[in-house]
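To assess whether the prediction recovers the assembly geometry, we first specified each molecular entity separately, as shown.
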Amino acid sequence: MYKSMVQFQLKAGADWMVKRLSVIDSNRCTGCQSCMFACSRRFGSGGLANAAIHVRSVGGVEHGFVVIVCRACASAPCAKVCPVDALSVRAGGGVRLEASRCIGCGLCAKSCPYGAILWNEEENKPIICVYCGYCANYCPHDVIALEEMEAKMS
Amino acid sequence: MIEKDPLKNILYLDLTRKRFWIDERRDLFEEYLGGVGAASKLLIEECRQGADPLSPENVIVFAVGPLNGLFPLASKTVSCFKSPLTGNYGESHAGGRSSIAIRLAGYGAIVIKGASDYPVYVSIHGKNVNFRDASALWGVRSSTTVGRVLRNAEAGAGIRTIMRIGGAGENLVSYASVNTETYRHFGRLGLGAVFGSKKLKAIVISGKTTVPVSDKRLYREVYDKIYNAAAKSPVMKKYHDLGTASNINPLNAISALPTKNLKESHLDSAERISGEYLAERYLGRRTACAHCPIACIHLAALREPYANEPYFYKTTMTSYDYELLYSLGSLLGVVDTDAVLKLINEAETWGLDAMMVGAVLSWMTEAFEKGIINEDQTIGLRLKWGGYDEYAKAIRYIVTQPNDFYKKAAKGLESLTEQYGGSDFALTYGGNGMPGYHTGPAAHLTYITGARHSHLDSAGYNIDQEGLKKGLPSVKELATSLYLEEAWRQILSSLVVCFFSRGLYTPQLVSEALEVAGSSLSEEDLNRLGKKILGNKNHFKEREGFNMLAAKFPRRIFDLPTPHGMLDERQLEEAVVLYHSLLEST
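The predicted structure of the complete assembly is given in tokenized form:
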């Protein structure tokens, strides 16, 4: 059974707010990658092993940058393809990872058309955005922001 | 140093035998931090005395330091090698993504030895190292194109560095650069030629390891202190607003902007190559090195029509900085903004040190003016101040070297003046082209005493400019403060932080940041280490034949006043002796 079916357990017509990370204007991105380092630093270490956000050039820095974030899909392909139900859809959109269930097959990462599921190579597990917005605090140019999203049944 | 920190790993590449291995050198990184401290020591260990810089015996070392991958503005990589331009110590720094890529691939340094007998590039993704045949890439003259090709051939988009050479490196021009991320350079002292001599077209590096810290809470505290200071501090504002190009107008205003081979120090239309003018009319994008929130890289968008087809344009993005606007602008009397950008782009594409190219072209122009050389040598080029077309062709000839004159030009100014004379107006210090500050005695002392003959070695131009407000220090004080500044900068470039952040990374902040990386060093320890590293570098320089006391100032600098008046040669020499004795005393 698809995990995204979880949303049907909610009461019809219920309204509530959830948070997700949003790319406000990727043209303002300078490629400094402070967001990536911030994300990895949440776990208390340096480097990029745990970054759930990725910034790369469009194809040469002169053309600007692509900022890849989890867009918190209501019907998330990554959760649909997980063979061991390690990913569950959050009420209102987005997914949660139960790392102890994950076998590191990588199907979730392959299923995301944005490439927004990055990989922790040291642990062989996906890195799943938790929509905390820590990265946005370190964006010097307001490229990304934590956004309140209305979650509705309809 | 934290036990599991991968900084201690040195990746060795033997291009002759296409072999690689990893050595653990905890001792080296504990003694020297990393960066220039570690790289210069490795160069001394690995490069035989008297080795020909363009032979397989030369060694290339890239090194990063404990703060790379941990803190913002720690975004630089140091390379050390024997310089084909000066014949002694070679050291060049670059940003882009190079330092993050090396650090997070799990290395503190990469040592490249030997030479391949066919073109290769090396692909390093973490512990996965491959020598790849680059025969199909050899002969691609544009370093930009090499980057485009490898971008598609290799993994690691967003976290990799692609260091490569263009035609100048292949043709062993003594001041060829290694370019990375299109717009950043190991620019000075000829690393590109050393790559070329080893048939090494490029190196691609990526990785994303964890960098461990000693204390998680302290890490976040120190991080926030640095990040907030960087994002909000007025000392960084200059770099992100107009960039270093903001220097053109103020230096021109005090008549310290070397113009037309330093026959003049003021340029009437310098406004048109100023940071303000470029930012208002040309600035197309600002970008950053990895893990630097400042974004000082300024890219000018130049739209040019094709002459033979209406409504058909190309738009070229060119990275500009003060030194390039000086060397290919004011120094050559070029004030046409489009022309300066096109010349910068020529140097970028071929993979040449734009500063040295400027010094060579400006000497050639004056030599042509004086009749020392003529069209026989220049192959018909009537070199003149501001003459863009001739300069663009001359740059091509320097790379392709169709006659003996251009062969000499490709070796540098010493080689030209030995054959043709004109050394009085050759703007060279220890073989390296003069940087763009005729601000006073301190700037010129930096050029001659600095281990790289770079303005960034001890920033004398800064002392000169401050001296305009409060007067210059005595000769003894001047020598001492330049020495202490150069010694301190060895610490910054061992960490490795960008020199633009020197106002933020005070000794106290460096101590705190190092504590996070598991090293406990007091301000006093740091100062002692800085002097030791500087001593090591000069030991190599002297071992390879450099004698600071015999080094010559270009005669030209005594011909026209600085903002502090005419330079006093005797005072300068006295300061060099003092500087040398300070070096010897450590």
